[in-house]
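Researcher: Please translate sequence to structure tokens.
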Amino acid sequence: MIPVIISGGSGSRLWPMSRQSDPKPFLKLSDGKSLLQNTFKRATNLLNVKNVLTITNEKTHFRMQDEYQQVNTKNIICDFILEPFGKNTAPAIANACLYSKTHYSDDEILLILPADHLITNEDAFNNAVINAIEIAKLGYIATFGITPEYPETGYGYIEADKSQKIINGYKIERFVEKPNSETAQKYLDSGNYLWNSGMFCGKTSTFLNELEKYAKNLLFDTKICLEHSNIDKIKGNSIVHLDSDTFKDVENISIDYALFEKSEQTAVVPCSIGWSDIGSWLSIAQTLPKDKENNTIIGESILHNTNNCLVYSTNRIVAGVDINNLIIVDTPDALLVADKDTSQNVKHIFERLKNMEHKTSDAHQTAHRPWGTYTVLEEGPCYKIKRIEVKPGASLSLQMHHKRSEHWIVVDGIATVTNGEQILNLKPNESTYIPVETKHRLENNAEKNLILIEVQCGTYLGEDDIVRFEDKYGRTQ
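Model: Translation complete:
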């Protein structure tokens, strides 16, 4: 079985932690691990898993590799299919199936997992997967239906046909869109409806046969795109860079609309696995452990006479006095205070920031790069100060800037610096000045992280004022 992890979307309802360039799967919860890392661990803890295939955006690829590396204790092979821009779940799954047919097997069973779900009962999840595999072997595509605990209006539902049992599952009668509260209560009372988890399991051949039958044009366009795409091999892992010119012709549609609502080869496995799709701050508050005053706390906080709140802090202490039913999320450059019952409306703030092209809609102050991270400490007219951290064995590209000079001061580690014609090895408290239009490169050849402070001065300080001449991460194009 090959787990297929699908990661996309911006998670607008989880702003300010989730942003366009730093989306929901990277959100860290109380265990210190991201949703993506927990999904990867959950997938690789299943029996006989030796490969994981991930479908994601080109921009998040290196960040995902870093996240996987931190928890990949079993040396699982991690293949990637990289989309040039977001589409939807049907193109992602079609690409996974076509890739599986070519590189794995026509009979390979694929387990489709969104990257940003929370599952607290891993034993129950493992049992549900075993049941889904047995159903998949019979030529069905199995989905995981979550036994509803309350009349939720934020999820789609699946109606099970309990007159047609298949092993430990049922044939699917129909898929239902998100209902109003009255309809959701009726679904709950009937006992025939399950929450649609968006997780699927089926043989590669079954997926492809059903796509050929119900989404022929999408499957054809996906084949054309793959034929025009490049594949890299890095340390035994395959990385497919989808061709943007042909990918834009692939239909933007969900797998539910493209296939599952039409196919007769679908089944549902009912399960109670402590599942949440973490669609809002309210869902986080409902899912995670609480203190005796019913508060969910992530990070450091001090609360007095505070009840039924979610307090999420990333780098400083948050104090709450005499408050109730609030969501407080504190990041270095944005603070959210919202009523807990209407937390879904955070998406409107995100959309307004996005329309304003405000920087807090796109990225955090700490940005992730293939070589490490940089954090903007302060900026103003004609200057910017950054903290740069470079991983062992990593290096920035050989580059230059037309409109800014840079001053590098080493704080920790040893920096190997190319500055024009010079090659320098700088230790803590040593520095170098790089004039405008001078070729330069920063490398960390030591065995621990390199930390330095960069001071930029110039008429323009944007990240697009970079001319790359050489780059070990393929970014010179």
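Researcher: Any highlights?
Model: The chain has a mean pLDDT of 93.
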